[in-house]
Amino acid sequence: MTSLKIAVEGCGHGMLDEIYDELAKACHLRDWTLKDLDFLIICGDFQAMRNEQDLNCMSCPKRYRALGDFHKYYSGEKKAPVLTIVIGGNHEASNYFTELHHGGWLAPNIYYLGEVNVIRYGPYRIAGMSGIYKSRTYQRPRNARLPYDRKEISNVYHVRERDVSKLLHVKEPVDICLSHDWPRRVEWHGDYEALFRAKPHFLESARIDSLGNAPAEQVMSFLRPLYWFSGHMHVRYSATVHHNEDADIFKYVSVREDFRAQLPRSMTRHANLVKKTAPKSVSAAITNKLTRFLALDKPGPGHKFLETLVINDCASKEQDIRELYMERTAEGKFSLYYDEEWLAIIRSTSNSTSESGLDAESTKVHTGTTRGSTEDMLWVRDNITAKTLLRIPHDFEMVAPAHGSLEFKNIGEQPQEYPNPQTEKFCKLLGIQNKFSVDQSFDDEHGFITFG
Q1: How many CB atoms within 10 Å of residue 59?
Q2: CA angle (386 as vertex; 324, 422 as ends), nearest 5
Q3: How far apart are CA 43 and CA 10, in angstroms?
């Protein structure tokens, strides 16, 4: 199996120039060049600000808002020197990410995974979930439209149950999974004492079992990826998570008695945030027993925000990998591909609107016995795979004006909506409704459209 040379960065904070400069230095230390890298991962707070109006859609006090470097890559003034794969965090141009809620190119060579996604890079499967977890919005629909009010700006990026449920019905192995905030309880699988010394306030959250993302914990326990990368907490932290059927993590993790005595009894139960539609057991195809977790910091002097890795193992068995995924570019690299199983899941859950985060249609699909596992997979193979349409097209287009554009006005206002051609093409490919293109005046029985 082919090994990967990759780099992982924690929070982007709009500082692409610094990230790519540091990446070149990190490669030099390994006697690599940037051309040797397969891709760079940025674990959220990417801040894809195309112009000043996008800043008005970011959840952040005005005094901390900064345009950053991204607009130069968006406009074509610069190009990312290496394939860059990103997820969203809690400080983003939420309007731009909503345009690409199924994923897409933010700029040439910079690919956003969307709210949730699974894609292919050669034999490797990469999954991601954007945003952060807040229990108060978890079961709400994702339906905010511009202009955002104050409440929408502060929760449009929150993780939703409807999205997590899709990841929980992936049955084939995943190699790399990304989240912005850490999966809950992962702190106990590493050097937690050193972590709490460096970040004393983390202990207060850990004591009440709220340090991290509970749905991400559930996804990790079901997908059991080989690697999991995160940002958000502005500290480097590594851990090794051993997967088992027993929910009591203290049987397998050494935690000092004085710490354990302070923790709630809920720590002996697996997270189950998608109760009605979650599968009862891990897929038989997923046999991995160990996940390597790494979280990294944000750019800045002395910050541990970027690392390079070599990945030699692959969760998929060679006989299960389609030859088309293994095609190389002229530079000898793999390309990004849509994933058959994921496309079937998206198709099976996208052809309905609902006031709830999990409507009757998606609940029926997620019992795992009907369209999602059979009919839609056959449809994908007949209409996409057989027509060699799985390769993700390089179809980036500028839809909003870039910083410095003569046509750009009213920088203190939120921008208009820009339906993105990439999303339209993806929805046509799958034969699903592009809900972002539906005019705001659309009036179904509930008065709104739910994205995703």
Answers
A1: 18
A2: 80
A3: 5
Q: Tell me: the pLDDT tens digits for 281-298?
A: 799 999 999 999 999 999
Which amino acid makes up residue 2? T
Please compute the mean of the pLDDT values over residues 430-436 and round it to a whole number.
92
Q: 333 burial class (0-12, 13-18, 19+ CB within 10 angstroms)? A: middle
Report the C-alpha gap between 331 and 109 in whole angstroms: 14
What residues contact 409, with CB distance under 8 A and at least 6 apart? none
Q: Is residue 318 part of a domain?
A: yes
Q: What is the CATH number of the domain that holds 137?
A: 3.60.21
Residue whose C-alpha is closest to residue 64's, from 45, 83, 86: 45
- State pLDDT tens for residues 329-339: 999 999 999 99
Contact in structure between 22 and 379 (CB atoms under 8 Å): no
Structure tokens, 268? 């002996």
Q: Higher model confidence: residue 73 or residue 246?
A: 73
User: Strand, helix or coil at 242?
Assistant: strand
Q: Is the pLDDT of residue 309 over 70?
A: yes
Identify which of 80, 11, 74 has the alpha carbon closest to the alpha carbon of residue 39: 80
Q: What total of structural domains would you count in the chain? A: 1
Helix (H, G, I), strand (E, B) or coil at 66: coil
Residue 9 belongs to domain spanning: 4-337
For 325, residues 6+ apart whose C-beta sits below 8 A from its C-beta are: 120, 122, 123, 334, 337, 390
Rounded CA-CA distance 231/81 in Å is: 22
DSSP E strand stretches across 13-153? 39-42, 84-86, 104-107, 110-112, 116-121, 124-129
Rounded to an integer, what distance in angstroms lies between the CA atom of residue 132 and that of residue 213?
7
Q: Please check the confidence at residue 270 and state whether its pLDDT lies above 60.
A: no
Q: Does some domain include residue 404?
A: no
